[in-house]
């Protein structure tokens, strides 16, 4: 049956490429191959690549002209307790809301954010802002006013992102002595007019020539902003490699005293010549683990926010297997596009062990494509890194690109709600706006019946002696660390010899994307091979019933704590930054 996947039409070239337009759904042929070969590692991006600038151009070019009614009144101000609290939380969940998706702002889940950044107004060379582009239309809109009011009701800060992506503009901003006062005055007016709570600076240039000038600019502007309101949050978006790059655009150590935090744009780190992950957790070249470590050596961990992507890239390739070369440049795709198409067309999801990220493949006519992206499993691993390294938190680029899938934000939260300051009596009592801690559940279909699966943490009875009893016909869970198992190979089932009505489901890496053990109770099997097989995303791998001689007893491995994402850790993603 033909399959369709929606991808933007423009071929993404090198760092400064601008994408024009978007293709509708592509007619795709059946995917039929044996799965991935060796993982496709990441290739380091050049220093001073410009992630938000590139992605903003690409996704904004796909959006229709912005048509939003202007606001009739300013948004509701922040509750007094939020307005008077320290600028940065101890468990930060930071999300960008881009102007081109403001029409869908009512669907943004702001309850579990701590900071929402409106993206953006663009700065002019003289330190004023552009009041004739779509970003300004969004700033003046009722949609933004409604979003700010809703975020404030959830105890979220809302900041204004000011952008400078043109090298000539940045050269002037960092060299003209009249700019700092003008830019500070402009930002104070814009933040105050919309009852906002601070500024995110997103200046993306190349080379070291503006380093000192940028340090001076931010120091002066930040000092004036803090003079206007010492509780405003001031952050800066910076490149993932900047802390380890003494010759790049950003001087992280020099900027640090004048900002509350750095939003580390840890994405767009993929190669531009071969299919590879946009945000590798580990692996060759730039990756999250290395970048966080480099930042931690330069600035306090309490100032580091790990930025993660809600998008990925689609490459035309010579074949379906990892390592097959690209035949053209990559196109950006949102997680929503990828997830919707994979679910509706039953595309298989594969796991790249090198980067700890998922990928998939499909065919359009005779042309193969490979898509690398981030999903709840890979995001949960990034949240675990943030927690383990004790940094301020995580942030997303950008809201709406996930299709408002609650599993994406849940993965970033780990097992804890974001840290929010308790509201006083003036705002109606304690109101973090957060949802309660998630209670995870696991289900599987076995012999046509839906079984509730209970995680096993203690030794299996009878020393783990068991017989193969087929496979689950399907697996589902709301635990973001294990959702990847739903699209992988069928999960094996074993019948314990010491308890014939007790069945165990046990998987481990690298054969599966996660490691874990669950059990359920069902009638004892009537044959040595146990129940039926099948399930997962690969029906062709079902195991037929066997006779006793071909189904000898096995000893299951010792039970360890479940591990998601194919890592070697024995702990699941825990609370972030707490």
Instruction: Using the coordinates shown, work out and report the CATH topology of the largest domain.
Output: TIM Barrel
Distance between the termini: 49 Å
**How many DSSP H or I helices?**
12
Taking the sheet with the most strands, its summary is: 8 strands, parallel, barrel
Strand content: 15-25%
Helix fraction, binned, reads 10-25%
Name of the CATH class of the largest domain: Alpha Beta
Q: Which regions contain 5 or more consecutive residues with pLDDT less than 50?
A: 1-47, 422-438, 527-549, 565-578
**Cross-sheet strand order for the largest sheet:** 3-4-5-6-7-8-9-15
CATH superfamily of the largest domain: Glycosidases
- Radius of gyration, taken over Cα atoms and rounded to an integer in Å: 25 Å
Q: How would you describe the overall organization of this protein?
A:
There is one protein chain. The chain has 578 residues and is an alpha/beta fold. It folds into 2 domains: 51-311 and 375-413, Glycosidases (TIM Barrel, Alpha-Beta Barrel); 442-555, no CATH class. The protein has 12 helices and 24 strands. The strands form 5 sheets. An 8-stranded parallel beta barrel has the order 3-4-5-6-7-8-9-15, surrounded by 6 helices. It has a 6-stranded antiparallel β-sheet with strand order 18-23-22-21-19-24, with no helix packed on it. A hairpin with a 2-residue loop joins strand 16 (442-446) and strand 17. Helix 6 crosses helix 7 and helix 9 (288-296) packs parallel to helix 11 (376-389). It is elongated. The two termini are 49 Å apart. The model is unreliable at 1-47, 422-438, 527-549 and 565-578 (pLDDT under 50).
């Amino acid at each position: 049956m033909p399959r369709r996947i929606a991808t933007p039409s423009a071929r993404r070239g090198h760092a400064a490429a601008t994408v024009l337009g978007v293709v509708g759904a592509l007619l795709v042929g059946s995917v039929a191959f044996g799965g991935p070969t060796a993982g496709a590692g990441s290739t380091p991006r050049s220093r001073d690549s410009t992630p938000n600038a590139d992605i903003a151009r690409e996704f904004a070019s796909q959006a229709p002209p912005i048509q939003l009614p202007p606001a009739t009144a300013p948004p509701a101000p922040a509750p007094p307790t939020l307005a008077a609290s320290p600028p940065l939380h101890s468990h930060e969940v930071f999300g960008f809301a881009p102007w081109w998706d403001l029409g869908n702002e009512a669907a943004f889940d702001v309850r579990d954010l701590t900071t929402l950044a409106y993206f953006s107004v663009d700065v002019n060379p003289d330190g004023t802002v552009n009041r004739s582009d779509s970003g300004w239309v969004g700033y003046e809109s009722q949609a933004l006013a409604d979003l700010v009011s809703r975020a404030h009701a959830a105890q979220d800060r809302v900041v204004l992102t000011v952008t400078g992506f043109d090298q000539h503009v940045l050269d002037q901003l960092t060299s003209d002595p009249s700019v700092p006062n003008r830019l500070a005055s402009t930002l104070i007016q814009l933040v105050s007019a919309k009852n906002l709570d601070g500024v995110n600076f997103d200046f993306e240039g190349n080379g070291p020539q503006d380093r000192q000038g940028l340090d001076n600019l931010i120091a002066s502007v930040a000092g004036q902003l803090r003079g206007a309101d010492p509780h405003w949050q001031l952050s800066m978006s910076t490149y993932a490699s900047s802390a380890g790059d003494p010759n790049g655009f950003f001087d992280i150590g020099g900027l640090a005293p004048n900002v509350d935090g750095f939003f580390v744009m840890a994405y767009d780190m993929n190669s531009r010549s071969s299919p590879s992950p946009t945000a590798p957790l580990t692996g060759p070249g730039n990756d999250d683990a290395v970048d966080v470590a480099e930042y931690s050596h330069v600035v306090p961990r309490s100032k580091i926010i790990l930025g993660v992507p809600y998008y990925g890239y689609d490459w035309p390739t010579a074949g379906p297997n990892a390592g097959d070369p690209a035949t053209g440049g990559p196109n950006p795709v949102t997680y929503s596009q990828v997830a919707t198409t994979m679910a509706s067309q039953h595309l298989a999801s594969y796991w790249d062990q090198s980067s700890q990220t998922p990928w998939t493949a499909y065919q359009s006519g005779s042309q193969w494509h490979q898509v690398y992206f981030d999903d709840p499993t890979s995001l949960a691993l990034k949240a675990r890194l943030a927690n383990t390294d004790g940094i301020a938190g995580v942030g997303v680029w950008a809201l709406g690109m996930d299709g408002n899938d609650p599993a994406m934000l849940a993965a970033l939260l780990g097992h804890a709600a974001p840290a929010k300051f308790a509201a006083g009596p003036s705002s109606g009592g304690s109101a973090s706006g957060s949802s309660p801690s998630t209670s995870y559940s696991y289900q599987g279909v076995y012999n046509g019946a839906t079984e509730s699966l209970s995680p096993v943490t203690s030794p299996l009875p009878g020393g783990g002696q068991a017989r193969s009893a087929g496979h689950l016909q399907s697996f589902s869970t709301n635990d973001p660390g294990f959702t990847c198992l739903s699209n992988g190979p069928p999960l094996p089932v074993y019948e314990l010899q010491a308890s014939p009505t007790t069945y165990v489901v046990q998987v481990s890496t690298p054969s599966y994307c996660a490691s874990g053990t669950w059990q359920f109770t069902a009638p004892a099997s009537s044959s040595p091979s146990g129940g039926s097989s099948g399930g997962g995303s690969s029906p062709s791998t079902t195991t037929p019933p066997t006779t006793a001689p071909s189904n000898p007893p096995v000893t299951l491995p010792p039970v360890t704590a479940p591990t998601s994402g194919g890592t070697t850790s024995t702990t699941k993603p825990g609370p972030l930054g707490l």
